[in-house]
Amino acid sequence: MRSEVAAPEAAPEPTAERRARGNRESGAWYPRWYWPSFATPAILWLALLFVLPFYVVLAIAFGTVDIFQNPLPVYQPWYWSFATFNQTLTRFVGTNPFYKPALIRTLVYVPAASLSCLVLGYVVAYFVARHGGRLKGLYLVLLISPFFISYLMRIYAWQSLLLTDGVINRFLIKLHLTSAPVNWLSGRPVTVVLGLVYGYIPYMILPLYGQLDRIDQSLLESGRDLGASPARTFLRVTLPLSRQAILAGLVIVSLPMFGDYFTNNLIGGVKTSMYGNLIDNAVASPGGGPQAGSLVLILVVLLLIPLAYYLRSTKRATEAGL
Amino acid sequence: MNPGATRVGRWWRNPWRRPRFLAAVTWGYLAWSIVPVLIAIAFSFNAGRSRTTWQGFSLRWWTGNPSLRESLLYDPDLRTAIFQTLRLGIVTMAVSVGLGTAFAIGLDRWRGRGPGLANFTMLLSFVIPEIIVGVSLFLFFLFFLKDLVHLGTATELLGLITFQISYPVIIVRARILSIGRQYEEAAMDLGGSPTQAVQRVLLPLLYPAIFASAVLVFADTVDDFVTVNYLSGGSGTEPLSVKIYDAARAAPTPAVNAAATFMLAATIVAVGIGLLFFWRVSRGQRAKATQEFVGFQV
Question: Which residue, A85, A151, B7, B51, shows the most beta carbons closer than 10 Å to its own?
Answer without folding.
Answer: B51
